[in-house]
Amino acid sequence: MDIFRELNEQDDDGEKSTSLSFNIIAGIIFVLVSFCFFFPCNRFIPLDRRSASIMGATMCYATRSFGFPHNKIDIVDSVDFDVLALLTGIMAINFIMVHQKESKRVIRYVQTQVRNHPRSGFWIVSFAAFIISPFLTNDGVCLLFVEPILNAFETIDDDPPKNSDFRLTKGDSFYFLIALACSSNIGSALTYTGNPQVECSSPPLLTSHLSYRI
Amino acid sequence: MIVGGDAIAVMSPILFLFYMTLPSISSFLLTMLWVERSWMKWRATVIDPEKLALVPAVPQLSNQNMNPRSHSKKDSNPLALSINTDFQPEDRQYTGLLSPYRADSIQGLASPAPTAPVPVSQKLIRFIITPFPYAMLLLMAIMIALLFVDLISIFGLICLTAVFMVVVLVLGNHWQGLPIWGTATSNHLYEGEEADGSAAHKMTSEEKIENTQQFFEELFQSLDYNLLFIFLGLFVVVENIDSTGIPRKIWKAIVGKAPFDTPLSVTSISIFILIASQFLGNVPVIQLAKPNVEMLDDDEKRYAWAILSFVATVGGNLTITGSAANIIVAEKAARIDPSAKIDFFRHYEICFWITLVSCTLGAFFITGVITCYNQM
Question: Are B189 and A96 in contact (CB under 8 A)?
């Protein structure tokens, strides 16, 4: 049973090393979850991303709690609640904004552009995502834009635009979504605040800048 | 930007923006032109305009089936789509929140019906409440733009904005005795008038409570809990693999303690960051690179952080799991309309190579901009 012995020894860089068996099990869980993330609902592991993610987390917790008690995981510490709060806040703002009359008019305008002039609609959507994402984060922009874009395609098969020679189909929505994701990711590279994932791990921005100046 | 405070210690936000503008704009244009080209290519190969025009009408919506797994090839084949020339929007019940064919949309948003006289006090309150969400958004954007985010992080700022919006809408409308949550026929928030344009009636206390409950029910239903669960689980799994030390060992084996001093080391570090961030996410990967950057002097640090942050952020487009934004789009799209499902291979086909080119080009631009700036 030597393989299950926890080493917890310090390596050359002073970091704790974990046992081989723990590494193997953690690696397997990670590979399985990654596989499901790349290919959700595949024929080998028919789980969607949500189920794979939750099952992976449960397996991590179970293996560490029962198999490797010395490496017990602190779930609260490992979850980045800032990011979850950010996403929830953006969803709430989104809910309020899309129900405003004026927002609806803007959305309706973009949807009309997408339906009647798809190529210019494509560039409007991409450019808007690129410009807004440095401020509202790339995740926020995607949350905000996906539904209006897909709703523009909702009736496209039943009621195609009359005055357009560019006949849009539902399959075209894929390219709008890809453009949205890509442009928001690229736009978020412009500022420190564009990508939320690591923001929390950094010290306050202005304070750092001032301390550097001083 | 994912490098946050470490980078800002050596590079002001304005300088960072200056370094990133040219690479970002060029990457944006390049990527969008490529996506548009792929789109046109797809249309040319898949869609035959003549056949499309002759397809008989089949009055059925493919998005009625909400099971993502039952997505059939027929749904994605544009030739199978129907054109119903006798279509009337009123014929169907469209459920999309922002659908152009919702009941209120068909009736028209701004009905030119006569309005009953509204007291001045109510007009004043309405004047404050109606543009409030926009004002809050604008304020938030200005605060972020001015980089006052150290007073409160961007997470706090967005949450606070959301809470303020909700509180002002609820309290403001209740003070007037008017509904927050529109009427049965209008799904937009209160604007002081019914769907027919007449002034809304004042509510009783019971009606206020009921209306508030309805508002909050709708608000909480609008939150995408699936997405939150995905991230919740993902954080634990990534932390678990990170705690094994395997990523650090791989990093040391590949990069070691190499500084950003030769084109080869910059390339190798960037490639590692690009690949590793597809699996681990960009946070742990940037953390891995930190020790390598910390040993550099300020000029080199600026260059290293600029390259790393650009590659890690734009590299998110490489595969579908490369960034949280991709996952959000894919998941939301699959739930709203299964026919708009984004799978790994279609994403790869369009985004993989162009992202590699964008990252390379961006790295060249950053190198050029920083070199020119340092010589000035």
Answer: yes
**Phi and psi, residue B72, nearest 5°:** -100, 165
User: B159: which chain A residues are within 8 Å (Cβ-Cβ)?
Assistant: 85-86, 88-89
Q: Which of A11, A90, A178 best tests the B interface by mutation, with the highest count of B CBs <10 A?
A: A178
CA–CA dist B367, B131 (Å, integer):
44
Check CB contact of A128 with chain B, cutoff 8 Å.
no
Contact A196 B282 (CB under 8 A): no
B121 has pLDDT over 80: no
CB within 8 Å of B289: residues ≥ 6 apart: B251, B255, B269, B273, B308
Mutate to test the interface with B, among A63, A116, A158, A213 (most CBs of B within 10 A): A158
Nearest to B270 by CA among B307, B320, B317: B307
- Rounded CA separation A98/B88 (Å): 25
- DSSP string for residues in B273-328: HHHHHHHH-HHHHHHHHHHHHHTS-HHHHHHHHHHHHHHHHHGGGSSTTSSHHHHH
Report d(CA B10, CA A208) in Å as an integer.
Answer: 9
For residue B336 the two structure tokens come to 């709203």
ipTM entry: 0.81
Token pair for B223: 């939150």
Q: Is B193 in a helix, a strand, or coil?
A: strand
Query: Does A153 contact B at CB distance below 8 Å?
Result: yes
Q: List, for residues A75-120, the tens digit of each pLDDT value.
A: 788 888 888 888 898 888 888 887 777 778 888 888 888 888 899 9
**Nearest CA of chain A to the CA of B128: how many Å?**
14
Helix, strand or coil for residue B239?
helix
What angle do the packed helices B282-294 and B246-254 form, to 10 degrees? 50
Residues B96-109 pLDDT 10s: 445 554 444 444 44
Kindly report the length of chain A: 214
**Would the CB atoms of A177 and B340 count as touching at under 8 Å?**
yes
Contact B4 A196 (CB under 8 A): no
Contacts by A129-133, CB closer than 8 A, 24 or more apart: A129/A179, A129/A180, A129/A183, A129/A184, A129/A187, A130/A183, A130/A184, A130/A186, A130/A187, A130/B24, A130/B28, A131/A187, A132/A184, A132/A187, A133/A183, A133/A184, A133/A185, A133/A187, A133/A188, A133/A190, A133/A194
Q: Is the pTM of this model over 0.80?
A: no
* Single-letter code of the amino acid located at B107: Q
| Residue type, position B291, single letter | P
B36 to chain A: nearest residue by CA?
A: A175
Q: Which of A30, A98, A160 is nearest to B189 (CA)?
A: A98
Distance CA A205, CA B96 (A): 40
Task: Give me the helix-helix angle, A20-38 and A49-62, nearest 10°.
Answer: 170
Residue with the two structure tokens 């409308």: B173
Using alpha carbons, list the distances in angstroms from residue A50 to A53, A73, B2, B337: 5, 21, 24, 17
In order of A116, B75, B184, B193, B195, the CA distances from B114 in angstroms are 33, 46, 20, 10, 11
